[in-house]
Design brief:
Layout lengths: L1 H5 L3 H21 L3 H12 L6 H18 L5 H24 L2 H20 L8 H18 L3 H7 L5 H25 L5 H9 L1 H10 L1 H7 L4 H22 L2
Length: 247
């Protein structure tokens, strides 16, 4: 691991770390969002570190939310969505090896924008066993293939109270990102450099999460759902631009 750490470009770690810090502020307040900021940055700087480095971040960041708001977890919803995530993770490993990254990225963006459009028209997805399992499975594919996992499950849970949504999402993201890391490792698609980079980003993650406290208190005054829709839309636009610029 020490050799992998020394092989990292410190400028890549610094710039990506700043993106992770900003993303951690967003995720600490809204429940998800670190990938929205960090994925395009790291993809542009060093694509070989994707998606493993940010999946490491995705495993560690939710632990802070659980330490703060773990008492608010909705366990039945978390279990159903994680069952779907397990299925989707296997599909995500296959997607990485078989499908065009550009086509996958564009598809993710379009699906998220469709979900936001339905939400704005109050055609929200009912929170049922099927919708939770389906959102978990879709997130397993998108999270494993691109490390972007928040918008799909976030849209399903958007009407939950802020603390309950954040805590339930934290369980889902922590366990789900770990599933994806294991799946990539088994598939031979996770490198020591990716893991080392993820660990090197931890200090930025901690600072960003601590800075999220004032924003979290503001969103809990009735703005959590609006924040979810804004972050989801921005995430979709980021991945669509990424697909358009893919060479």
């Amino acid at each position: 691991m020490s050799e992998a750490l020394t092989s990292l470009d410190p400028h890549v770690v610094l710039v990506t770390g700043i993106a992770v810090l900003v993303g951690a502020v967003v995720q600490g307040a809204a429940g998800f969002g670190v990938s929205l900021v960090a994925v395009p940055v790291l993809t542009l700087l060093d694509p070989s570190l994707m998606p493993g480095a940010l999946l490491v971040v995705g495993t560690l960041l939710p632990l802070f939310t659980l330490a703060r708001e773990g008492a608010h977890i909705d366990w039945p919803k978390a279990r159903l969505s994680l069952a779907g995530r397990l299925v989707g993770t296997a599909a995500g490993v296959w997607v990485i090896s078989e499908l065009s990254p550009r086509a996958l990225t564009a598809g993710i963006g379009l699906l998220v924008l469709l979900g936001v459009a339905l939400s704005l028209r109050d055609l929200t997805v009912p929170v049922t066993g099927r919708s939770l399992f389906g959102a978990g499975a879709m997130t397993g594919i998108t999270g494993t293939a691109s490390s972007i996992s928040g918008p799909v499950i976030g849209l399903v849970l958007q009407r939950m109270p802020g603390p309950t949504m954040r805590a339930t999402l934290a369980v889902f993201f922590c366990a789900g990102a770990f599933m994806s890391l294991v799946g990539l490792a088994v598939g031979g698609q996770l490198t020591a450099r990716q893991v080392a980079c993820g660990l090197a980003l931890l200090p930025f993650l901690v600072v960003g999460y601590l800075l999220s406290n004032p924003l979290r208190r503001y969103l809990d005054q009735g703005w959590t759902r609006a924040a979810v829709l804004v972050v989801s839309t921005c995430s979709a636009l980021v991945v669509l631009v990424k697909a358009a610029l893919w060479s």
